[in-house]
Design goal:
Strand content: 5-15%
Oligomer: single chain
Structural class: alpha/beta
Order of helices and strands: HHHEHHEHEHEHEHHEHHHEHEH
Strand order of the largest sheet: 3-2-1-4-5-6
Largest sheet: 6 strands, parallel
Number of strands: 8
Radius of gyration: 22 Å
Number of helices: 15
Length: 295
């Protein structure tokens, strides 16, 4: 008896896709319900978000056709877009760009690049079909790790090449992806290029079934993003706000989780350093800014 295959239409992958498609359809139905509820309540922002998720015609009409479609999950990934945009332009792409994200805060961050940004279409046949057929992207580039199986299959059928750049897969998340077995293999084999952020990420992606001949070592976009110069006006504004001219020292707490910033700040401020030290806190999720300030 031959081993199950991961090719579309056979063995493990077809079983996984058969299970995945109803879940995707259920997600689309839930968003349609939320859109109806938003209209009933007069919540224009929620209605707009649902329309983008469902790729309704009105949400697509002002978006560029034939663009390089970049996808960044949220704020962190969206912060990596400037060097990627610069690299693609430097490589000779003179056409339009389009950015999608999974979160509203990510969408806002992506829009700051000056490129049209919307919420990504749901990984369901209806929204994906409308999005791809209407916009006809020239290329799809995924930042870090957002692997949506139906999207990759739909883009392959439409003849749109897909790339996964600065691909990251942590040791913590790896077992969850591995449990998806053939579904992940099917998705990863739809990618024309996979650029891992590190050797560890490369090994995990290969273990999930990524084709080795499509791997390319182009590095981690985080280092490129960190090297981006801060505009002089922005640097001057930050210097004034942080009172850097006074020589005051600052402790930066990055990517903190709930309950972490307050105790540390109180411990330091209650010590000998006292008023000579300031705290600059960067929560992992921007929507937590107000809550962290109360800690």
């Amino acid at each position: 008896m031959s081993a199950p295959t991961s090719r579309p239409g056979g063995g493990i992958s077809s079983a996984w896709l058969a299970a995945y498609r109803p879940m995707a359809a259920a997600a689309a139905a839930a968003v349609r319900c939320s859109a109806a509820w938003a209209r009933f309540r007069g919540d224009r922002a929620a209605e707009e978000a649902a329309a983008q998720r469902l790729a309704e015609p009105g949400a697509l009409e002002r978006l560029p056709r034939g663009a390089v479609w970049l996808h960044a999950a949220s704020v962190g990934e969206a912060g990596l877009l400037p060097p990627l945009l610069a690299a693609l332009r430097g490589a000779g792409w003179n056409g339009p760009f389009l950015i999608t994200t999974q979160t509203l805060t990510g969408r806002d961050r992506a829009a700051s690049t000056g490129v049209p940004a919307v919420l990504a279409p749901l990984d369901a046949p209806g929204p994906l079909g409308r999005f791809i057929e209407t916009l006809r992207p020239a290329l799809h580039v995924i930042v870090e790790t957002e692997i949506w199986p139906l999207r990759l299959l739909a883009l392959e059928r439409a003849g749109v090449p897909c790339a996964l750049v600065s691909a990251r897969l942590s040791a913590r998340r790896f077992p969850r992806y591995r449990r998806l077995g053939g579904l992940m293999r099917t998705a990863l084999r739809r990618l024309a290029l996979i650029s891992p952020a590190s050797e560890e990420d490369r090994a995990r992606l290969l273990a999930l079934g990524a084709p080795v001949h499509r791997m390319a070592a182009t590095g981690n976009l985080k280092w490129d993003a960190a090297a981006q110069p801060v505009p002089a006006a922005e640097a001057a504004r930050l210097a004034r706000e942080l009172d850097l001219a006074s020589g005051r020292r600052w402790i930066v707490l990055g990517s903190v989780h709930p309950g972490e910033a307050g105790p540390l700040a109180r411990a330091v401020l209650g010590g000998p350093a006292g008023d000579s030290v300031g705290f600059l806190v960067a929560p992992r999720h921007p929507e937590r800014f107000a809550a962290v300030a109360r800690e």
